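Subject: Interface between my chains keeps coming out wrong

I've been trying for a while to get a sensible model of this assembly. When I model each chain on its own everything looks fine, but I need the whole thing in one frame so I can look at the contacts. Pasting all components below, labels as-is. Any help appreciated, I'm running out of ideas.
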Amino acid sequence: MLKIAKYVVYDILRSKVLIAYTLFLLLISFSLFGLESDPSKSLVSLMSVIMIIVPLVSIIFSTTYFYNAYEFIELLVAQPISRNSILLGEYFGVAVSLVVGLLVGVGIPIAYYAPTATGFVLLLSGIALTLSFASLAFFASVVTRDKAKGIGVALMMWFYFSVIYDALVLAVLFAFNDYPLDKAVIGMASLNPIDLGRIMILLKIDISALMGFTGAVYKQFFGKSFGMIYTIGVMLLWILLPLLASVRIFRKKNL
Amino acid sequence: MIEVKNLRKSFGKLEVLKDVNAFFESGQAVIIIGPNGSGKTTLIKTILGMVVADKGEVIFNGKNIVNDFHYRKDIGYMPQIGRYPENMKIGQIVSMMKDLRKHNTDVDEELLHQYDLPSMYGKSMRTLSGGTRQKVSAALAFLFHPKVLILDEPTAGLDPLASEILKAKILKSKQEGRLILVTSHIMSEVEEMGDKLMYLFEGKINFYKTIPELKFETGEDRLGKAIAKIMKEKLHA
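Reply #2:
Try treating it as a single job with all components included. I did that and got this:
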């Protein structure tokens, strides 16, 4: 499995897309930190950018990579290598590359300008989002055979989690605003990895005005530290469940 | 060596394999013939575990291949269309396969050298012609001294010289006691290499006989004619 991951990483490094992504993140992070004299404010702006870009790039890059590696996968399934190691090897190769891109592109600026707990949590949440969207991308890729369809499904997922979902939550809140919705809101936030990533950071920042309804309810309901543990736990599920589902499907897939 | 029992496979509504039963023995070259779309490649891919059968089983050396992958270390597979990571070079592919199969020493590089591939190690796969790709596939299939060779239309796309080299290698491997499974459309090739002939038609085995048996039963001397005669008889029966 690690051997396969190694070849995947080599392959990705040659493709230059990852380098462009890293440079792009570097550029954004440095300019956001440079524009603002208070680094904790820059962290909040950086968070908004990361919550959009990291999931989008992770899911699209992973899906296209999977389809482009189809030949490699075909070659591997005829070898004495288990299907599990093939898929997990591909996943780790892609995930590690994306995480390294994030660590360089966002980690270095944070370490330089804002080496605080908040900065660290922002990075952690970025990593979790990368892993979970890569995992969703693999799920999209194993359920569809056609490349265009697979990328379409991946894009839809991103669009759903970053745009449609919030609108749905707002609609629910609006429609049922006569009822106590605290618990429902927590449940709804758990159903969206991007929301979870945002909450992770907001729990760390003490600006209640920025936390929004969900964040405030969260803090009140769980308290800071348990809230963090719960969020990380659910985030792990968002990484593991789609990945396990894709392994199961891939084991029975005809190539 | 390999036994397939009651193999069934459908892709959607299309039934590709309908209850296929066969036994393949070591030291033999079995040629699978049949029209396009008759299930030859699906049968091969099922044996390789690339396609998962709906029903039935494949027994390799006495063991069911379901959920197993170790048995594939004894198989060398040459696909009909060799597809490789496009941005890798020939040399990188060869060393990667050795690395992935953890088999670095004592490899069979005869074909690799006969095809003069080492001189092209620096060429990237994207730039290769179809024939050169086939040469790479063939050399990789034989590289690890496999006990079973599965070759899907091996000579299609090879120039006459290259296909003679491959046929000689196949005959040699057969004499070394390996099992060779080949699909082909070329009758002369079937006659040159084959011991047994399997005719697959619409997902069923129409006949599976040794070549002398076929000739004797039909009274024909030429294989092509013998097959044609059997087909006609089946049609009228």
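Reply #3:
Confirming on my end. Chain B touches chain A at residues 11, 45, 48-52, 69-73, 75, 77, 79, 83-88, 96-97, 99-101 (CB under 8 Å).
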